[in-house]
């Protein structure tokens, strides 16, 4: 029945539903472990997130997700599951997931900043609940890095516009 559903769903395309199901199960186990750690620690949950924490978490999630999924320096982490295609933007790479079923699913996760951001934001949220000072310090550094990246790109665009180079 599962294979028939997968064939009908995919409409002739290669869609690794089994791999996606495994990734979802892995994510459920991952978040359950974090939730258990938070509960065992006995820290009370806030009534609602502070607006500044939401902004800080958003920028940090963006930057860390791109760093993990696109940066040249983190390509050794992705290499077992991906294939290099070409450069993509400043200090970023375009890679594709390897075709094998499990490697394909992990490769998609490892190259997709949108997919990775779900794991990153969950980790950051747990970190804020378990180790708030250390997590916010690291988040501040990654947010500063995102700001520096934006300034580098703006500076490059300004130089190109004014000099034509």
Automatic annotation (TrEMBL):
Keyword Transmembrane: yes
InterPro entries: Mycophage_PG1_Gp7 (IPR010773)
Chain segments annotated as transmembrane: 20-38
Keywords: Membrane, Transmembrane, Transmembrane helix
Descriptive protein name: DUF1360 domain-containing protein
Taxonomic source organism: Streptomyces bangladeshensis
